[in-house]
Design a protein that fits this description.
InterPro entries: LeuE-type. By secondary structure, the protein is an all-alpha fold. The chain contains 9 helices and no strands. The chain starts with a helix and ends in a 5-residue tail after the last helix.
Length: about 210
């Protein structure tokens, strides 16, 4: 995978992880209620769920390219439209995405279980991966390149949430995130719109 392509993937995955939402609120709640370890447990289990969805998506898209290239092209364009819609939604969110994460009594096992359930129980996550990864999967993509895509999504997701859990356990990360939620939304919106425009003008693998 070319470095420029991987950087695009990494940037969108990072913005997706940083966007205020239920996953981030979950990690914050467990960190506030149980300390660093429950927060880290929630972060790592959520990343495993993300990796599972990414693996299914990459594997399924790879088979689809070989058997039905025209259908894959349609999915690519539909994915670009979906990413554009998400981008517009993020730009319009403004401060509406600000977090309100109350503390809750928790344990490491409970945090890990809920982190996995939040990832696997979010149907929008699989839609996001289908839309996102269809822009990066190519017919001749090697197994190693597909593994890079999956591990990139999983490591960035887990790395961000672990950083939040560790930082929140001894600093003022939550107020910082709350104050900048609208800027995170705007940056995410711009990146998603840029990716959608990129694939519309020059579809990957087309």
């Amino acid at each position: 995978m070319p470095l420029s392509l991987w950087l695009s993937l990494a940037a969108v995955c990072a913005m997706g992880a940083m966007s205020p939402g239920p996953s981030l609120a979950l990690v914050l709640r467990h960190t506030l209620g149980g300390g660093r370890m429950p927060g880290v447990a929630a972060a790592l289990s959520h990343a495993l769920g993300v990796g599972f969805y990414a693996l299914l998506t990459v594997w399924g898209l790879g088979a689809l390219i070989v058997r039905f290239p025209e259908l894959f092209q349609m999915i690519t364009w539909a994915g670009a439209a979906y990413l554009a819609w998400l981008g517009i939604k993020a730009l319009r969110a403004g401060r509406a995405g600000a977090l309100n994460a109350d503390a809750m009594a928790t344990s490491g096992m409970q945090a890990a279980r809920e982190g996995m359930l939040v990832a696997l129980g979010n149907p929008k996550l699989i839609l996001f991966f289908v839309a996102l990864l269809s822009q990066f999967v190519t017919p001749d993509m090697s197994l190693a390149a597909r593994a890079i895509i999956v591990f990139t999504a999983m490591i960035i997701d887990g790395g961000w949430y672990v950083l939040v859990a560790v930082g929140l356990s001894h600093s003022r990360v939550l107020p910082w995130l709350q104050a900048r939620a609208h800027w995170i939304n705007r940056a995410t919106g711009v990146l998603l719109l840029a990716l959608a425009l990129r694939v519309a003008l020059e579809p990957i693998g087309g």
